[in-house]
Amino acid sequence: MTFGRRSLLGLAAAVVPIAAGGAAAAGFEAVLHDGDRERTIGRVAIGSRGMLTVLFATRDRAAWLRDIAHRTNALPAMSVDTPPPANAPPYTDASRIVPRDSPDFPKALRDYLMASYRLELRPARG
Fold first, then answer.
1. For residue 13, is pLDDT > 50?
2. Contact 100, 114 (CB under 8 A)
3. What is the pLDDT of residues 34-57, one digit of tens each?
4. What burial letters (b/e) apply to 33-49, b meaning 16+ CB within 10 Å?
5. What does the alpha-carbon distance between residue 112 and residue 110 come to, in Å, rounded to a whole number?
6. With contact defined as beta carbons under 8 Å apart, do 12 and 58 qualify?
7. Residue spans per domain, the chain
8. Alpha carbon distance 69, 63 (integer Å)
9. Given this model, what pLDDT does residue 19 score?
10. Structural contact between residues 37 and 68, judged by C-beta atoms closer than 8 angstroms
11. Cβ distance 3 to 17 under 8 Å?
């Protein structure tokens, strides 16, 4: 699978193909946020059981993106913030566990990546 430098990412940096995407995987552009700036650094897929696969990445961020995929794929579940019960004391934090096989897992994964790494996964265009 070959990807043009500018046609898919609009970047001048070299693109490193990592893996071929599966037919059942949902493709996302990996967008890194840095203050007011954002930069597309690759494309990833969220496959069965919420497993993250790096399809390709810019040369300068390929290892970083693969490392994030490896770390998140090792997690059995995600913890997501939820509103506390109505009778909870003020300033109470609450969360719930979202297991990998939950339909809520891909959204929890995307929220985690944004909060932890400033990495947004946007649905890929074309």
1. no
2. no
3. 999 999 999 999 988 899 999 999
4. eeeeeeebbbbbbbbee
5. 5
6. no
7. 15-123
8. 10
9. 52
10. no
11. yes
5 pLDDT higher than 70: no
Q: What is the 3-state secondary structure (H, E, C) of the chain?
A: CCCCCCCCCCCCCCEEECCCCCCCCEEEEEEEEECCEEEEEEEEEECHHHCEEEEEEECCCHHHHHHHHHHHHCCCEEEEEECCCCCCCCCCCEEEEEECCCCCHHHHHHHHHHHHHCEEEEECCC
Placement of tokens 């497993």 in the chain: 51
What is the mean predicted confidence (pLDDT) over 7-11?
Answer: 44
Q: What is d(CA 115, CA 52) in angstroms, rounded to the nearest whole number?
A: 17
Whether 125 has a pLDDT exceeding 60, the answer reads yes
As given in the structure block, the two tokens for residue 94 are 């609450």
Which token pair is 10? 């609009």
- Confidence tier at 126 by pLDDT (50, 70, 90): low
For residue 17, what pLDDT is reported?
52
Q: What are 50's two structure tokens?
A: 């919420």
pTM score, whole prediction: 0.76
